[in-house]
Each structure stands twice: as structure tokens, then as C-alpha cells.
Fold each of these.
Amino acid sequence: MTDAVGRFPADTLDQFVLGPAARTPDKPAVIERAGGALVTVTYGELARAVDARAAALAEAGVGTGDRVVIESQTSAAAIALLLACSRLGAAFVPVDPDTPDLRVRAIVEATDPVLHIRPAGRPARELPSTTAVAEFSPDGLVAPAGKPRQRRRRAVVGTDPAYLIFTSGTTGQPKGVVLSHHAALAFYRGAQRFPVVAADDVVASTSPLAFDVSLFDLGVTLGSGATLAPVPREFLSFPRRLLGFLRDAGATVVHGVPSLWRPLLRHEPDDLAALDRLRGILFAGENFPLAELRRLRELHPGLRVVNAFGATETVACSFAEVPDPLPADAERLSIGDGYPGAELLLVDSDGSVVDAPGAVGEIHVRCPSLFSGYWDDPAATRQVLVPDPLEPRSGQLVYRSGDLAYRGADGELYFCGRTDSMVKIRGNRIELGEVERRLLDHPTVGAAVAVAAPAADGEPSLHAFVVPRQGATVGAAELVERCRRTMPAYMVPARFHFLTELPLTANGKANRTALAELARAAR
Ligand SMILES: Nc1ncnc2c1ncn2[C@@H]1O[C@H](COS(=O)(=O)NC(=O)C[C@H](N)c2cccc(Br)c2)[C@@H](O)[C@H]1O
């Protein structure tokens, strides 16, 4: 693979991503579906689009130190907008267009963006009128003229925020994870050294733009001079369309959460096996069920499988090649031992570093891709950006991940659980506490506990156990409505169970294990 590291010394996202454009302007950067056909955008065209968007955004008053909210899925037009923000020194905040108004309002109020950009033609949102709203399409940006403001900062520096990712927060307010250019590029360069992507790859990207795997896909793919093929979101639930797109785009690698493969394995195994250009996959966000991974390998002998592990707070922290063949007795996959440039420490509950094989500890990540902190929340930041437990007096910081793991005999780590109540549903991060707070906000709810339990098809799903307030009656329909209006779809419980009282543990806490059993039994 052409090693883009060092060849284009870059300290901002746009410089890193457009580096290859100088060398291979006619190479396809993005292959995407537009108007029912496949369209190719070259690196030169993308670079010119970034210039045009940067001029339009500057006209709209966007400059160093601002935030720009961008509602979109991955596309060449959206990428041009993100990179234009980076060039102007504004942090972009990618938001899923399907996010409910109340949650977008929370993000807009928290970040006070100078501009809120939405895809042309979407229905208006109920938002405070203080924020300027712009519309974009492949042909450009329609933005209100901005009030030119006195800029105290001119140049962008690598430690400035490149993007904010809002994720579920236990307090009920979404948490903004702030990544600097330096952190994002340090991770992307670590991925290049692994290596994840080769310059002749066509990388099919399947994550929402608001999920940092998609930013990784575009960053590493374009930064390495390869081609990005963003998969239309609606194809993910239509196996034949998805396979058709992968075939027509000539995808050599597919990145995404493990659950994206389930419908293909179940409904179109033959067409999946016929994808003769497919040579690798990268999965992130949650464990890959081993039975499904074996099945995928049967259909594609020799397929390279990379397990990409980690939290948005360090972009991720480790890559591991999944062995081929997968040992018959394998119970779980290794997550590796840190990406090139990162170091993973295991710390047990009394704070001492453990490294005896098999000893479980909480992963602490020492790496150059540490996030800058949670937006406007120094207390929550201090909880997870902590002194290096090996050298507490060194001034070195590590990310306390909340992930439990043990070291195998081969020195690689195996993820085996969480220290808190974060769960993943189809790779989406959910703090159960946030779901419970939303339910408890309802006046007729006396107690509420949310648990994740595997449904019949193995897919984890969210269950809510609700105890109505004394004498009140509460209906699932109104609870669902409240959840739908305040949280992304993936956080709306799939099943509601109404109890007269909660099962309790010996020390009087809700017995989540018993409730998870009830959830499993109820499927
Ligand atoms: N590969 C795995 N196997 C199993 N459990 C995983 C994996 N990757 C995460 N997780 C879990 O998800 C948590 C974090 O969730 S997150 O903040 O939403 N981030 C994510 O999921 C995605 C994460 N940023 C990421 C991962 C890889 C590449 C890129 Br680029 C980005 C981790 O702390 C783990 O508990």
C-alpha cells in the first residue's frame, strides 16, 4: 500500500484526507449512489468541492473556533462539508437526520452552532430560531449570509476540536465527545500502520455519519488514496440491494457493525459468496457472533477479518486480525494489544495494574488519540481521563474505558464485559440509565429498569420493566411515544413488561439478572 504517512505531513483532517488529491487527482475518491445510478467523484473533484464549500461557509460566517451541526449520512457532498469546516477551523457535529427534534434541540443548545446544515428538502424542525439553518445538496450550499465576526484566532492548530460526537449519557443529556485533529489523525495513522486499508481498496462504509466508524472509514480510506463507497442506509435492510451495490461498486472491503451481515447470511448466502472482489471486512462496535463469523468464512474462504475495538473517546484503541481458521473451541475473539502507537493497561478494582494471564482488569488506554474531553462537562471528563496508573506522578493521562478484559497466553486481550450499565444494540451505545430516566419522567411511572437481552435470532434487544405509580395505569403506547420523541430509535425499548413490583437483590437494588432472565423468557 502506498504509505501516506509522512508523505503528506498534515495536522488537520482536511489536509490529511485530501493529501492524495495532489498526487492522484483523477483517482476515484467516492463511488456513491445518486439518482438511481452509481456516480464517481475523483479526488480532484472532491478537492474543488471542498474549496467551494469553504468559500460558502466563510460567507455564512463560519470561522475558527465555531461549531457547525451537519445532519447527513455519508456522501461526497457531506464529506466536502466536513472537510470545509476543518479547513476553516470549525468543529463539525454530525447528527443523524432521523434524530428526534428534542434531541437535536439539546445538541444545538449545548453547542451553540454558528450554522445548522441539513440536507435540502427535509421537513423543517421545531428548533430555537437563534440558530442559522442552511441546506445543502450535491450542487452546493444555500446558507443565509452570516454576520462577519471579529476573529481573535486565525490559524487552525492540531489540538483544536475537529468534531464532536454526541452519544448516550447516563444523566439523560447526551454527552459530546470532543476529538481534536491531532487525536483523529493519530488514530488514522495508527490504522495505516496496522495496516487496515490498501491504496487499491474500494471500502464500503455502512455506518451512520454520526457514528465515528464512518469518520474513520472516510479518514483512513481517503487519507490512504483508496476509494470510499458509502452504502445507502436504506440498503442495509434489503440484502439483494446491498449485495447489488457492493458488486456494482466493486467493493474489496466492507466496514461496519457485525449485525450488518445477519440478513445477508440468512437470506442471500449464494449472492454473498459470489462477491468475488470482496477480500476483507472490518467490524467494530460489538462482538461478532462466532457462529455467524464461521458461516461468513465458509462463504468466503481466506477472507481477512479485522476486529476493531474501542470507544469514541479514543476513536478506538485496538485492531486484531481474526485467525483463519477460527479455532474450533474459540469462545471469544481477541481484540489485540493496542493499535500501533497505543498501549492497553488492565487495572483491577483497587487500582493496581494486572498483567497475569487470565486476570480481569479494566482497560486503560494510553495513546495519542485521547479525546479532548466531554463537551462542557469537566467533571465527567475527569472521571475517565485519569493519571496513568503505572506512573501516577508522570503527568501522563490515560482513558479509563469501563471495558473489562483479560490477557490471554498469547499476550492479546479478550474483552469480557463492562463495569457500568452501557450496552450496545447493533453497535449503538446505550446508557441504560438514560432510558430509565426517560421512563421515570412519565408521571404514571413509579419504577423503571431497562435491560438488554438476546432475542430469538441472537440480536440483543432492549426491554423495559415498568412499575406504575400507586393507583395509576400507564400504557405502553404513551411510553413508546415519549421515548420516540426524546431518544434515537435504537434507544426505544422493543418490549415493555409491566410489574406490580421489581425483583430486588439482597441489598435492595433492582435485580437486573432476574429481570434479564424474565426478558429472555418472554421472547
Ligand atoms: N470490536 C468490538 N467488539 C466488542 N465490543 C466493542 C467493539 N468495539 C467497541 N465495542 C464496545 O463499544 C464500546 C464503545 O462504544 S462507542 O463509544 O459507541 N464506539 C464504538 O462502538 C465504535 C468505536 N468508536 C470504534 C471502534 C472501532 C473503530 C472505530 Br473508527 C471506532 C466499547 O467500550 C466496547 O464496550
Amino acid sequence: GGGSSRGILPQQALSELQRTGYVVLPNFLSAEEVEDCVGDVAQLCASGRFSSAGVGEAALNRVDEGVRRCEQCFIFPKGRQRGAGVGEVREQLFSKIDALRSALHENCGKPLDALLTEGLYVYYPHGGYYKRHLDAATGTTSALRVWSYLLYLNQAWSEEDGGWLRIFNDGGAESAPEGGPPSYVDVEPRGGTLVVFRSDSVPHEVLETRAERLALVGWLCQPLEGSSTRRSLIAGLSAALAVGSAIKFGPSLFGGQAK
Ligand SMILES: O=C(O)CCC(=O)C(=O)O
Ligand SMILES: [Fe+2]
């Protein structure tokens, strides 16, 4: 292996990721690279490519103000925003994310499928937040997510702005374990900071922000082939087909009174 992935993550970061399930890397992007991304975001926004973000399955796109308040613009699959924003900047991002994927693929066990990489720009207005959650939910396509990555794009950030990413290490999942002491680390969403964590086991939250807050959020996914998700999706699909055929052919079972 090696190639483009060489040096994208220091060895120490890879070991930390293996040991704790998450890692924080300040200055993963230079100030100039952050500025370029902000320019891409501004243009995508001006072209009307941002929309209100929901929670849960993308297809449902439920906007639940009790859980999350932000706007989003998907940049994967790669051609998705072709013709809008600053193409070269996004190409640079794609190659960095691809190198990150290769490094994790080679060093951290699970194979990752380049075609299933997800990523979106998310914009939180003043007062935005995202309550505690896990990124991978069993029985849904999100279960394919192995690693979550966050890349912050806020050029100036200070203590008063809030908006921390809170990473819980309390042993809980979607909710905190009862009775245990709180245990977490807070990460400032400073421009250029990269955060990577296990999608299925690292609960996290975005604390209310008192400034506009910008990030690239995404997931590196395992191949569908052979995963338990593939089996559950196929099971769900055949159940849906069975219901569909019962509706279509059902009347004939009761004497052929087709409507
Ligand atoms: O904006 C962030 O820092 C985290 C966003 C997040 O957790 C998500 O979109 O799943
Ligand atoms: Fe998340």
C-alpha cells in the first residue's frame, strides 16, 4: 500500500485512534486551505446549494429542531456540486480525504470502500447545535460508516463562541449511562482541525454555538459486500417486495375481484 496516503496521519495519531477510538489533529489544513474552503462554501451557498439539515436516514431528511439546527450541502458523490462553488478547492479536499481513507484502511483493520465515502459542508447559525448521538445506527445504511471525520473551517474562534464538539468517553451510546460520572473531552472547532472517530461507538454532541460555525462532516464506509448491513438491507427489501406483490396480486387470492 502506501502511495498517496503516506504521511497524511502521523503514526501517533493512528495509534491513538486504535486505542481510544478518536483523535484530534489541529492544523491538519493550513490557514490558506481553510480560506479556500470557505470560498467554496460561500459560492455554493450563493448558488442555493445549501438546505436545512435533518436527522436520521437521508431519505427521510426529518428536520427535527429538538435535535439539530443547521444547514448542509453534500459534496459526495464527487460530481454532486459540479459547476458550482470552486471546483479545484474541492478536488484538493477529495484527495486529502482519499489519502485519509487509505491510511485508515491500511492501518486500522476494516476495509473501506472509496465509492461509499460521504461528506457534506454543514453550517450552524448562531444558536445552532446537534444533540448527543452516534453516527452509525444498526439496521440502516448508516451502519456502513466505520470512521467519522470532521474538518473545521472557522477562521477565527474564541472561547465565547461556544460550539464545542463534545466527545463522550463515558461508556454510553446514544444516551449517557445512568448514574455514572460525566466523562468527555471538548474540542474547539478551530479552522484546520481534523477530528476522526469510530462511527458506531463514539457518542458526540455539538454544544450551542454563539457564532456562525462551519465544518466539513463525513464518513468513511465499509464495502456493502459481506457486511451485516447488506443482509439487513436485503431482508428489508425482500419484505417490501413481498408486501408489494401481496397488494398487487392479493385480490385474486380472494376470488379474483381485481379493483
Ligand atoms: O459539526 C460537528 O462538529 C459534528 C456534526 C455531527 O456530529 C454530524 O453531522 O453527525
Ligand atoms: Fe455526528
